[in-house]
Amino acid sequence: MPPGEYFFFAALFFLGGVGGASLDLNIWILVFNAVLMAAFLLMWVRKKERRFLALGALSLLVTAGAIYCRASVAGLQDLPVPFNAKTSFVGTVDADPRISGGSLDVVLKVPDLGGARILAKLPRYPERHYGDVLNVTGEIKSPAPASYANYLLKERVLGTMSFPQTSLAATGRGSPVMAWLYGFKGSIVGALSRALPAAEAALAAGLTVGERGGFSAAFNQAMQGSGTTHLVALSGYNIMVIVTYAMALFLLFCRRRAAVILTVLLIVAFVLMTGAEASVVRAAIMGFILLLAREAGRLFNVRNAIMLAGLVMVAVNPQVLVFDVGFILSFLALIGLVYLEPVLQGVFKYSGQPGFLAWRGNLFTTASAQAMVLPVLVTNFGGFSPVSLVSNILVLGLVPLTMGLSFALAGLSFVSSFLASIVGLFVWPLLRFEVGVIEFFGRLPFPALPAPGWVLALIYYAAIAGFIIWWNRAHSNVQANRG
């Protein structure tokens, strides 16, 4: 068995243990691990193939993953956080504040509470920034329900506060690098806001740096109803657009090796600047692997790349595997694009011609991703938009050009507002069309599908996996017979 296969199973066993521990399947993890080891040892005894002995040893990583997951949160819930009682403390703004409707979501790190992080909802004004030190007085609540508490725990957030009293004690106490990156992000958003109407500027900010603070409640609802929220989630699609533009720009001034290094550094800075959300981190890791594989002249193993991306993210923060819906959706959509999309293209005999606005390619891309995330979407968000196929066909083909022009507009704004306004004349019609599509399809009613249980979800994914395996085998046999 080649080394890549051993890596795949090692990562799979480790992630399985992390997932089991996250779901509190404590004793069952040990039982499963024992059964798995026994099965591999039995296969080794019967067939005398060394790979089964190696897999039996690797299966111990199931237990190792569970222990690692437990260790990652050990002591967190024992920190001296005074829940449900009025308290005062000094906390530092530990991440870029996010606008949420008419308020501001601020994560505070509190040294006097053992370094616990508290999520506070504050008034929109006065503005608070990363690195600000605040005097805070209010009541800390334990997050509820349990699913929300687990979601916050993955960010090491133990409690929430709703509009506590705050006053500014100091500024500039965060990392200078992160402060500069957050400030640069704010400059991009500001440049777009000055050059474009409000709705178009908000969408441009979402497409380029994932900033959704400028979205109205109605537009947020329209994006959800039209199935286009992923456009501003900074997924692999957005990252690859940025990689493409960055490589093309750097190659104008330096050699390929230097261009690759600069592109990697740019993507790292971009990930940090935009808050390191699951989808963008996964996409960045996949992009790094692809770039390195190309430079090394080696084949790009997509399956192992997906597994490596997941393994790195889970190693940094084990709670994302089960409690971060963005992480789950990101990987399911990627699996759909890698494994389901080629099958759908084969079933419908896709010729490779993208068509007007690349509608054919966008149709298969959207359908394959939506099919893979459907149970998770319905379970966590209470609905699925069937009109998303049409809205994405109309919009996706224009996104790379829109992003490129939006970045150009923001960049030129630092040099000349006149040049930026000229670029704005070209990007505005694209953004106006995209906003119009989102708003139109967002107003159409769509059925609220009932949430499937885990049994139905497993049956659903088993059916998709079976269909993919059947099609690939049948297609391989046809090709063999022709040969």
Write the layout of secondary structure elements.
Blueprint: H1 3-22, H2 26-47, H3 50-58, H4 61-73, E1 86-93, E2 98-100, E3 103-110, E4 116-123, E5 133-139, H5 146-153, E6 157-162, E7 165-170, H6 176-195, H7 198-209, H8 217-226, H9 236-250, H10 256-273, H11 278-296, H12 302-316, H13 320-323, H14 325-347, H15 359-381, H16 388-396, H17 399-413, H18 417-442, H19 454-482
Parallel strand pairs: 4-6
Antiparallel strand pairs: 1-3, 1-5, 2-3, 3-4, 5-7
Poorly predicted sequence stretches spanning 5 or more consecutive residues: none
Distance between the termini: 27 Å
Q: State the helix count.
A: 19
Query: Would you count the extended β strands for me?
Result: 7
Along the chain, the helix and strand elements come as HHHHEEEEEHEEHHHHHHHHHHHHHH
In one word, what is the shape? globular
Counted up, domains total 3
Classification by helices and strands: alpha+beta
Main β-sheet description: 7 strands, mixed
Would you tell me the overall average pLDDT? 84
Which percent range fits the helix content? Answer: 55-70%
Radius of gyration: 24 Å
Strand content: 5-15%
Give your account of this protein's structure.
This protein is α+β, with helices and mostly antiparallel strands and 483 residues long. The protein has 3 domains: 3-74, no CATH class; 78-174, OB fold (Dihydrolipoamide Acetyltransferase, E2P); 182-471, no CATH class. Helix content is 64%, strand content 10%. Strands 1, 2, 3, 4, 5, 6 and 7 form a 7-stranded mixed beta sheet that branches. A hairpin with a 2-residue loop joins strand 2 and strand 3. Helix 8 (217-226) packs across helix 18 (417-442), helix 9 (236-250) packs across helix 11 (278-296) and helix 16 runs antiparallel to helix 18. The longest helix is centred in the last third of the chain and has 29 residues, at 454-482. It is globular, with a radius of gyration of 24 Å.
